[in-house]
Amino acid sequence: MQLFTLAFLLIAQLVSGHFELTYPNWRGDSFLPPASQYMFPCANVNTTDASNNNRTLWPLDGGSLKIEFHHSWTYVAFNLGLGSNTNTFNISLNPMLLNETGNGTMCFPKWRLPADLNIEDGTDASLQIITIGDSGTALYNCADIRFSADATLLSEDQCQNTTGLELYPLVQQQADGSMVGAAATVTVTASAAGASATGESAAMGMSAPGLSSLALGAALTAALLLGS
Fold first, then answer.
1. Class of domain 2-226 (CATH, top level)
2. Which residues have CB under 8 Å from 32's CB, separation 6+?
3. The pTM is what?
4. 20: which strand partners?
5. Among residues 162, 165, 186, 163, which one has the least CA distance to residue 102?
6. How do residues 174-189 score in pLDDT, each as one tens digit?
7. Each residue of 125-144: b (16+ CB within 10 Å) or e?
8. For the chain, what are the domain ranges?
9. Residue ranges of the chain with per-residue pLDDT less than 50
10. What are the coiled-coil residue ranges (predicted)?
11. Rounded to the nearest 5°, which phi and psi values hold at 16?
12. What is the pLDDT of residue 11?
């Protein structure tokens, strides 16, 4: 009984420090060994025949994203890799690293792709979601998708949020205290009806204009590129 209780507590602690990609459907449960969210690029969960045949259909210009955050705050990055079995995620879907605060569900009804990708109907791809905590350690999850002209977005009932979650893009602070890219600052506040953006450039991935790419700190860049 004591061993069972200890194992339960260890699993609960592990889950509380990680995150879940609930839409598009993740490749596999990254909480179950030999998977580990600490492993780059996809938590040691590879594309299989089963996952390849069960890809989530995504609209050609972007689709819904739904994530369960278990940290009180974390940095977040969304990347895309094209191909049926790719481990290369070289297309950034949010050039500025995002700072997410609050734990719970955040759902974006539509996260728009860069307009110049020119995705064709039937193209296979994979999404990579990265979170980085206060220790600088990165966590990874991936989802296999297939772009389709017939794909639909999550309905309002399916895309519910935990009230109070917020998402901010990081901006650089100059030596004089001014902010590079401050005009592009956007706050994304989650409500039950869906995540909504406010700000002068409330774009991020949720509307066509992208935000300017900013240099990231060396530690965060290393975490994004190399994993923990």
1. mainly beta
2. none
3. 0.76
4. 68
5. 165
6. 666 665 654 444 444 4
7. bbbbbbbbbeeeebbbbbbb
8. 2-226
9. 1-16, 182-191, 196-204, 206-228
10. none
11. -65, -20
12. 39
